[in-house]
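Moderator note: this is an archived Q&A kept for reference. The question asked for a predicted structure of one protein chain; the sequence and the answer are reproduced below.
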Amino acid sequence: MSENIPEHIKNEIEKLVKDLNYHCYRYYVLDAPEISDEEYDRRYFHLKDLEEKHRYILPDSPTQRVGAPPLDKFEKIKHTEPMLSLDNAFSFDDIREFDQRVRKLLKSDEPVEYTVEPKYDGLAIELTYRNGLLYKASTRGDGYEGEDVTRNIKTIRAVPMKIGGVSLVPEEVDIRGEVYIDIAEFEKLNREREKKGDQRNEKRGQGGVRPRGLMHEGFLGEASRRGKEGGGKKNSDRFPEGSLPIHP
C-alpha cells in the first residue's frame, strides 16, 4: 500500500512523527516545551488525518499510543535475565555483613568504596526494544517471569516508541527502570477520590493510575544488548539525550 503513496506525503508524515516525538520528549521528560498545547494538537491531528487518508502509519507514531484502552488482564513474559530486587539493610551490622560479602566475592581485603543515593520506589518495568522500536514491556513478577503490560506502558508519553539520537542501535536491548507518579499528581488523585466519596487513598500509584513517566536508574548495568551488536552482554554505555529519559 505504501508504494502508492506520493513521496511528499510520506515525507510529511515521517517529519511530523519525528517532530511530535521530539516535542513530546521536551514536554513530558524535560518539562521544557517549545510549542503550545494548541500547536501540538494541531500537528497531531494533521498527522492523524494524513495517516487515516493514506493508510501510512509508522510504528513510532504518537497516534499509536492511545489506539486501544490499557489492559487489565495480562499475558506472561519470561525475562531474558532475572530481574532481581534489592535487599534491605536496617542496621550497621547489616551494612557490615554486606561489605563482607562484597569483599568475599571480590576475593580482596582492600577497602571498598561505595556510592549511596536515594531510591525511587516505583513499579519495576523492563522495556524491550527490537531494532530501536518498542517491542514489549513487562513487570518484574517473580523475577523470572513477569506480565505483559506493553499496551499500558504505551500510554506513558515519557516512554519513547523508538530509540533515537544514535547511529547504531542493537538488534535487541532491554532497559529496566521504575514507573512512578509525581507527588502533585498523587495528591490530585486523592483529592478527586475524596470528592467522589471514595475514602481509599492510593498508596503506590496503582489501581488505574496513569503514571507520569518511567525513570531509568542511569543505565549503568541496566541495559542488556542482544544480537549482532551485543551478544547478550551487559552494557555501560549511556544513550544520548532525546533517546530515553534518564534520572541523573
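Archived answer notes: The radius of gyration is 21 Å.
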